[in-house]
Amino acid sequence: MGAGARRDASKDRELKQLRALMDMAALVNSTLNIHAIQRRSVDAAAKLLNSETASLILIDQETGELYFEVALKKGARLKQVRLRKGEGIAGWVVEHGIPQIIHDIRSDRRFFARADQVSGFRTKNMVCVPVKTREKILGVLEAVNKRKGTFSPEDMELLVAFSHHVALAIDNALLYEDNIRHLVMRLREEKQHARERERILKDLHDGIGGITTNISLLADLAQDASSLEEVRKTLSTISELSREGLSEIRCFMNSIDESRVDWHTLMADIRHYGSTCIEPHGIRFRVRETIRDVREPPVSILYLNLFRIYKEALANVLKHAKAKTVTVALDVRPERLLLVVKDDGVGLGKPGGSGRGLRNMKARAWELGGTLTVSSRSGTQVRLELSLPLRLGAEQ
Ligand SMILES: Nc1ncnc2c1ncn2[C@@H]1O[C@H](COP(=O)(O)OP(=O)(O)O)[C@@H](O)[C@H]1O
Ligand SMILES: [Mg+2]
């Protein structure tokens, strides 16, 4: 063969290799599954360098250990082998970032024999190159046992070129996995929010919807009323209802304003509502509050229902108790919430006389996955207990 023909043959080989490299790079980058990338990279590296086998060894970003899957001889079973940081030729290449050709593996003291023991494979020679992105090293790629002759510097060059594509594929796959994890978390939160919104809407419909319906019925009645006295009475009920409606709306607005809903604001609202509702009647009003290490802020549905229970409890004190003092205690801890409204009034009277107010309070407590008890021993005590984080009644 003349010099020209030799040059042509070597050009030909180069072109063929380049084509193969491009094909392999495309194949490796056509999936986001890290195991598929691993498998395809290994196959491609072995093919590109005409070697018996190949390995892709990755760094466990948490421990710094290296791990790879070796094919066991019989069947296509895989087993994961782990190397400590810096161990083996792979560990050396990771540490130094320099590609290596090793012609006689047995005489290289860096050689880590356990992979051969596990796989039953006998490593003779290899090319080992780092797999790295611009920011960090992800692992190494090894081609093992050249089928004919020994590995050449061109082989190493080819593997280095290929390793860039492998790095890109792995980096993408890891990013993708990360994104998926985030997305799953976001979806879970979204679902929770949607459920909460649904409850609030239903609540609005029952609460404010009921009040406005009542007002319009009463207004119709008032139009047909025969006496001024009757009209006055109806008007007074209407104004009471509309006040109630306004208070509901305020409470609702507060509960959905995410910027203001935290435990301390809830406490402040409890205190403010209590003193403006109770003190004008000449009744003493006291609050005891504890908030301990609570990280999760109160969700809207909690704020809303807690407040309604509280309002009804205070309304009952004004209506029935003839009390001198009302004491409210709110105690919030990471695992539970306790609200107690206690008065020193006449007590519940005959048991079983439970009207709509108490029934509603209990239903709301149940909605929040908690319990409400009313007891009467020198006055009346309403006690609401919820476990946190909230587990809504219908989900249990
Ligand atoms: N703090 C209280 N002090 C005395 N009696 C109460 C108190 N709370 C509730 N009660 C009694 O329990 C009954 C049921 O209350 P509730 O279900 O709220 O209905 P309502 O307030 O419409 O009467 C009241 O009628 C009253 O007799
Ligand atoms: Mg009542």
Give a brief rundown of this model:
The protein is of the alpha+beta class and 396 residues long. It is 52% helix and 20% strand. The mean pLDDT is 87.
Please explain how this structure is put together.
The protein is α+β, with helices and mostly antiparallel strands. It folds into two domains: 3-177, GAF domain (Beta-Lactamase, 2-Layer Sandwich); 259-396, Heat Shock Protein 90 (2-Layer Sandwich), CATH 3.30.565.10. Helix content is 52%, strand content 20%. The protein has a six-stranded antiparallel β-sheet, with helices on both faces. Strands 7-8-9-11-10 form a five-stranded mixed β-sheet. It is elongated, with a radius of gyration of 37 Å. The N and C termini lie far apart (84 Å). Magnesium ion binds at residues 312, 315-316, 355, 357.
Residue share in β-strands = 15-25%
Count of domains = 2
CATH superfamily of the largest domain: GAF domain
As an assembly, this protein is: single chain
Written as H for each helix and E for each strand, in order along the chain, the element string is: HHEEEHEHEEHHHEHEEHEE
Helix content: 40-55%
The small-molecule ligands in this entry are:
adenosine-5'-diphosphate, magnesium ion
Strand order of the largest sheet: 3-2-1-6-5-4
Output the keywords:
alpha+beta, 2 domains, elongated, 396 residues, 9 helices, Heat Shock Protein 90, five-stranded mixed beta sheet, 11 strands, binds adenosine-5'-diphosphate, Beta-Lactamase, binds magnesium ion
